[in-house]
Amino acid sequence: MGYQQGLSGLSASSNDLDVIGNNIANSNTIGFKQSTAEFADLYANTIATSVNNQIGIGTQLSGVQQDFTQGTFKTTGQALNVAINGTGFYQMSNNGALTYSRNGVFQLDKNGFITDSGGLKLMGYAANANGVINSAQTVPIQVPTTNIAPIATQTVTAQLNLNSQDTVPTVTPFSATNSQTYNYSTSIQTYDSLGGSQQVNMYFVKTAANAWDVYSGPASGTISKVGAVGFSSAGTLTSTTATAPATSPGTGQLAFTIPNTDGSTTPQPLTLDFSGSTQYGGKDGVTNLSQDGFATGELTNFSIGADGTISGTYSNGRTQSLGQIVLANFNDPNGLQNLGNNEFAETSASGVPQISAPGSTNHGTLTGGAVENSNVDLTSQLVDLITAQRNYQANAQTIKTQQAVDQALINL
């Protein structure tokens, strides 16, 4: 028994205590992965020594192995809290220098970039003004603060029932201001190329059994006859005849134009689509009424999907992709260099990062509004702490015993 073995044991136990203490200290650190100290024995390197007579000279720290198993999730409800479910790391940019992290607590900086608490920018795929994701390269993700562009209404979809038992109006000709000249009317708000809105009215006049004239136009403008629709004896829509200059692109469809005066595109093409409308012996009424235009909108909220897509919700009711978070995988995560602050750096041992969208190939998925807790098991760590303490005390005892032996020899 010698001092060398005892000293190496003390050093090893001290390293073990450091690793365990670090695990315990980070038991509440978001995205932290616990580590285990690994040791190897030491033997003197001498040719003269017989293999059968080799005596070890102690132990050494051979490495610190990180455990990248999944941590539990904690729901926060914060839009920019994101947890990785499975393998992968967030790619972060520190002024162009790339690092990797499992900490999904993010925020917006003054320029709209998604960053962590240290100001590092989250990398991903950018989206253009139309919400199309560009997966050709990763860039710092920036949430746009500008209003979303308006979309001019092109089609009004109106599914309705016209009462087969209605009678032909006795008052002619048609007048939008005289309800005795038509059987039913409805209206819808449409949008022009600048996002301006105006109401478009539709009027239906029964002319004979199964036959109806259709009048339409802006509420503030001229209402004109745009065509006629016909129904079968079973109440289904069977024919559409346009009145010039209106046209009929298809059965149930009447296309015409309306004027705009706010500087937007004028005249504005508009198609009324009555497909699916019926003529049954029930009340006149609308069963479905919609249009495909939108006013301009301000960003009111956003969410992050399982595939990393950041979807913005706007005040005009539209939802559009703002970008997509990517994940990086490594052949050997334990080969990463631990930089502290939940950041890792690529090394030759880890291999190059494999960048892809969450949920693809062997990349994990994301859970928005949640964070991944530390995977430290406090119960096992406290047991390991007691074991490491006993190991330290035992190695100290070997030194004390060697000292007693040496004193006995000196006293001879």
Distance between the termini: 19 Å
- How many helix segments? 2
SSE run: HEEEEEEEEEEEEEEEEEEEEEEEEEEEEH
What's the gyration radius in Å?
Answer: 37 Å
**Count of beta strands:** 28
Biggest beta-sheet profile = 9 strands, antiparallel
Mean pLDDT: 91
Strand content: 35-45%
Contiguous uncertain segments of 5+ residues: none
Structural class: mainly beta
Shape: rod-shaped
Task: Please identify the oligomeric state.
Answer: single chain
Q: Kindly give the count of domains.
A: 3
The helicity comes to 10-25%
Structure description:
This protein is mainly beta and 412 residues long. It has 3 domains: 3-69 and 374-410, no CATH class; 73-148 and 299-372, no CATH class; 155-291, Flagellar hook protein FlgE (Tick-borne Encephalitis virus Glycoprotein, domain 1, Sandwich). It has 2 helices and 28 strands. It has helices at residues 3-25, 378-410, and strands at residues 35-43, 56-66, 73-75, 82-85, 89-94, 97-101, 107-108, 114-115, 121-127, 133-140, 155-161, 184-191, 197-208, 211-218, 224-231, 237-242, 253-258, 268-273, 285-291, 299-304, 309-314, 319-325, 327-329, 337-340, 343-345, 354-356, 365-368, 370-372. Strands 5, 6, 9, 10, 20, 21, 22, 23 and 26 form a 9-stranded antiparallel sheet that branches. Strands 12-13-14-15-16 form a 5-stranded antiparallel sheet, with no helix packed on it. A hairpin with a 2-residue loop joins strand 5 (89-94) and strand 6. Helix 1 runs antiparallel to helix 2. The longest helix is centred in the C-terminal third of the chain and has 33 residues, at 378-410. 31% of the residues are buried. The model has no long low-confidence stretch (mean pLDDT 91).
